[in-house]
Amino acid sequence: MTYLEGTVSGPAGAQATVRFLVDSGATYTVLPFETWKEIGLAPRRSIQLRLADGTAIERNVSECLIRLPQGEGHTPVILGEQADQALLGVVTLEILGFILNPLTRELQPMQMLLA
Questions:
Q1: What is the pLDDT of residue 11?
Q2: Is residue 115, in this structure, part of any structural domain at all?
């Protein structure tokens, strides 16, 4: 398993440090309940998600600025509920221009192809 520490910022500039599990099987980044509340995020819409075990759930979505040692950018985030853990998903990695190397379990720059 690969973990990264990052900083997330809300719309008014409030910040929190988060230890993310980098999950190449997760589409979206998840912020724990206490974290998104602390930085002042508000739901913008809700979406249906399917967990790895097949369970369907609904979660609210917002957006925040995320800063990792490798780079920073704005990303959509799932607003976690009480038991939800911090996950760094593929959408955020792609927005920041990184992929998770499955052999070394490290982030590396994505190679872009132009058609």
A1: 95
A2: no
